[in-house]
């Protein structure tokens, strides 16, 4: 997990359909896409996962499914992202197998300590900053929290929450291997240009 990581949100796609946003973000260089759907039915979720897989496969960009292992398995996605109240890591690994990418959100220091014993592929530091996109979060980690996690955790860090072109340089500096965004790409009038600019922050 490295570089820009797009997390989708239907409601944040205000200028273009979600599939268009994903296609443009992939063309512009995102290295991972997570399909995150909180409100659609299972059939629609699967259809959307299959559609995104078709967009991502030629570019060899992995598709990660938020929370739903059944959708990940049915769609042949590369992995799942689980939160602290989703399927526990050990069960997710047993169901998906050793090759699956499994990311886990950490919201408290206890979560970070517990993750140390899990062979997750990355931890999602959530949220780094407060964000209107997701309001039911714990306290933001801020840069200090991110640095503390970096100094302790053996896992690659994916930073998420309130991140945009204007504030990611110090987040990368603090040790985030990857930067995950929703609105900075989904809500951009030009998702290609927005992704390009975000990717350039890694240079
Ligand atoms: N998890 C923690 S914050 C967040 C998620 C899904 C939303 C991030 O959205 P944005 O628009 O990039 O701040
Ligand atoms: Mg979840």
From TrEMBL:
Keywords: Magnesium, Metal-binding, Thiamine biosynthesis, Transferase. The keyword Transferase applies. Its cofactor is Mg(2+). The keyword Nuclease does not apply. Its EC number is 2.5.1.3. It catalyses: 2-(2-carboxy-4-methylthiazol-5-yl)ethyl phosphate + 4-amino-2-methyl-5-(diphosphooxymethyl)pyrimidine + 2 H(+) = thiamine phosphate + CO2 + diphosphate; 4-methyl-5-(2-phosphooxyethyl)-thiazole + 4-amino-2-methyl-5-(diphosphooxymethyl)pyrimidine + H(+) = thiamine phosphate + diphosphate; 2-[(2R,5Z)-2-carboxy-4-methylthiazol-5(2H)-ylidene]ethyl phosphate + 4-amino-2-methyl-5-(diphosphooxymethyl)pyrimidine + 2 H(+) = thiamine phosphate + CO2 + diphosphate. This is Thiamine-phosphate synthase. GO terms for biological process: thiamine biosynthetic process; thiamine diphosphate biosynthetic process. 2-[(2R,5Z)-2-carboxy-4-methylthiazol-5(2H)-ylidene]ethyl phosphate binds at residues 131-133, 162, 182-183. Pfam families: TMP-TENI. Condenses 4-methyl-5-(beta-hydroxyethyl)thiazole monophosphate (THZ-P) and 2-methyl-4-amino-5-hydroxymethyl pyrimidine pyrophosphate (HMP-PP) to form thiamine monophosphate (TMP). Pathway: Cofactor biosynthesis; thiamine diphosphate biosynthesis; thiamine phosphate from 4-amino-2-methyl-5-diphosphomethylpyrimidine and 4-methyl-5-(2-phosphoethyl)-thiazole: step 1/1. It comes from Desulfocicer vacuolatum DSM 3385. It is an enzyme of class 2 (transferase). Residues 4-185 form the Thiamine phosphate synthase/TenI domain. 4-amino-2-methyl-5-(diphosphooxymethyl)pyrimidine binds at residues 34-38, 66, 105, 134. It comes from the Bacteria. Belongs to the thiamine-phosphate synthase family. Binds 1 Mg(2+) ion per subunit. GO terms for molecular function: magnesium ion binding; thiamine-phosphate diphosphorylase activity. One of its GO terms (cellular component) is cytoplasm. Mg(2+) binds at residues 67, 86. Coiled coil: none annotated.
């Amino acid at each position: 997990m490295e570089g820009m990581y797009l997390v989708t949100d239907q409601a944040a796609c205000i200028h273009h359909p979600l599939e268009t946003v994903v296609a443009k973000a992939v063309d512009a260089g995102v290295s991972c896409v997570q399909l995150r759907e909180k409100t659609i039915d299972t059939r629609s979720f699967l259809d959307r996962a299959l559609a995104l897989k078709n967009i991502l496969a030629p570019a060899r960009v992995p598709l990660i499914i938020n929370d739903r292992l059944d959708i990940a398995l049915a769609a042949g996605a590369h992995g799942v992202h689980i939160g602290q109240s989703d399927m526990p890591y050990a069960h997710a690994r047993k169901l998906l197998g050793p090759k699956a990418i499994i990311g886990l959100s950490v919201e408290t220091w206890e979560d970070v300590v517990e993750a140390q014993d899990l062979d997750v592929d990355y931890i999602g530091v959530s949220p780094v900053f407060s964000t209107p996109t997701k309001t039911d979060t714990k306290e933001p980690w801020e840069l200090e929290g991110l640095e503390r996690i970096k100094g302790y955790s053996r896992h690659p860090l994916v930073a998420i929450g309130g991140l945009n072109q204007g504030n990611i340089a110090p987040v990368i500096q603090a040790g985030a291997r990857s930067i995950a965004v929703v609105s900075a790409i989904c809500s951009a009038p030009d998702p290609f240009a927005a992704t390009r600019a975000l990717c350039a922050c890694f240079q």
